[in-house]
Write a structure and sequence with these properties.
five-stranded parallel sheet, 8 helices, binds zinc ion
Length: 225
């Protein structure tokens, strides 16, 4: 159990995984010691940021939204360029889906660490996972371990990056959310790559989410029927 003066900053995207991580952090550090940060990075679906605000409110923690406008200018991925359709299949060249935003998690966690540093917060929590996902290389355990090492050196800090979902399948993530009492908050989350609400049910993100809930035998609270 954490001591009272340990505080945590959760990177909250408005999705299922980061919301589950928020509840993980609240259980571990206490709601009074937890705050959240979201990034406005030019994502094509503004609804994600609205969801993050609502989820933080629902969980009674603060939420800061920071603008990072550069990813959209870099171009080339379907999440920040509305001219690029979300593809169901991965690229033959890179083996990655075109929803991969190069460097996104590295930048998010670096800014989160800087924000935390300025406030004396040592614990960062992120919902990245290397299991059962699209294979984004910045979600892997090795990447996060090396980034933590780099941030500690570069900021002379004792920052710890927590990744509670790293080795969980989508099914296990749903089970963890239930165990943490996060299920009702999951009704406020956004997952769909096509930005639809109710979700389209067909994009890779919707399919993965549905599979996790089905395997866990839990009804997704986001779905009305
Ligand atoms: Zn969808």
């Amino acid at each position: 159990m954490a001591t009272n003066d340990e505080r945590a900053l959760v990177v909250l995207s408005g999705g299922q995984d980061s919301t589950t991580c928020l509840y993980w952090a609240i259980e571990r550090f206490g709601a009074v010691n937890v705050s959240t940060i979201s990034f406005d990075y030019g994502q094509r679906h503004r609804i994600e940021l609205e969801c993050a605000t609502r989820i933080a409110e629902y969980a009674s923690v603060s939420n800061a939204s920071l603008p990072i406008n550069t990813f959209a200018a870099l171009g080339g991925d379907a999440l920040t360029d509305s001219n690029i359709e979300v593809e169901k299949n991965t690229s033959a060249d890179s083996g990655l889906p075109n929803t991969f935003v190069p460097g996104r998690n590295l930048v998010f966690l670096t800014f989160a660490a800087a924000y935390a540093y300025a406030r004396g917060i040592d614990h960062l929590v992120t919902g990245v996972a290397q299991t059962d996902y699209s294979g984004y290389p910045d979600c892997r355990e090795d990447t996060i371990r090396l980034l933590q090492q780099t941030l500690r050196a570069g900021m002379e800090s004792a920052v710890v990056i927590h990744t509670p979902l790293m080795h969980l399948s989508k099914k296990e993530t749903v089970e963890l959310a239930v165990q943490l009492g996060a299920l009702r908050a999951l009704a406020l989350t956004h997952t769909c790559y096509n930005g639809e609400r109710p979700p389209c049910g067909e994009c890779p993100a919707c399919v993965l989410r549905a599979k996790g809930f089905a395997e866990a035998g839990i009804k997704d609270p986001l779905l009305k029927t």
